[in-house]
Write a structure and sequence with these properties.
two-stranded parallel ribbon, 174 residues, single chain, mainly alpha, 36% helix
């Protein structure tokens, strides 16, 4: 995590108290060399973990490549180095083309979510743009669905590339 306050980090992650004994929070920063970890923490992780799941990235549609490079490119390089340090670890990388919305049941999502901001703007206006909304569909896979499918693939030792997406998008009017 990038948060210095582990209490707020647990809350932000939405991890139930009963599950916290299975998870160890480690302070770092994906944009920094070696994930911002000191050598002792790096070595401990290299020794203890057997799998890496990379879902971290900085998404900003107006930022330059240079502004995003460390968080989105350097981080993968660091994770690959970690994966081959000590015993070899499995590496799973998630690239989310269309995972914008939050939980499929509650709708909970980040206040910074692009689709949430866009949809809130439409709701505030009380209108959607003119046009044939039955033809223009938004592909927005709920994050809990994507996480469940990714976990199932990893646990079943799926090989290759998995494309996780909902079967049919929704219209702007919906």
């Amino acid at each position: 995590i990038r948060d210095n306050n582990f209490t707020t980090a647990w809350q932000r992650l939405g991890i139930a108290d009963a599950q916290r004994d299975r998870i160890e929070l480690v302070r770092g920063d994906i944009a920094q060399e070696n994930l911002g970890l000191d050598s002792k923490t790096w070595a401990a992780l290299a020794d203890r973990i057997d799998s890496i799941i990379n879902c971290a990235a900085v998404i900003n549609m107006t930022a330059t490549y240079e502004a995003l490079k460390d968080a989105n490119v350097r981080s993968v390089h660091s994770l690959l180095l970690l994966a081959k340090t000590g015993r070899i670890k499995a590496m799973h990388n998630a690239s989310t083309l269309a995972v914008f919305v939050g939980d499929s049941v509650t709708g909970a999502c980040s206040s910074h979510d692009f689709l949430r901001t866009f949809m809130q703007g439409l709701a505030n206006l009380g209108h959607v743009p003119d046009g044939d909304h039955g033809e223009l569909l938004v592909d927005a896979t709920p994050i809990d669905y994507a996480a469940d499918m990714m976990a199932a693939g990893i646990l079943n030792e799926a090989q290759g590339i998995m494309h996780i997406a909902i079967r049919r998008g929704f219209s702007l009017a919906q």
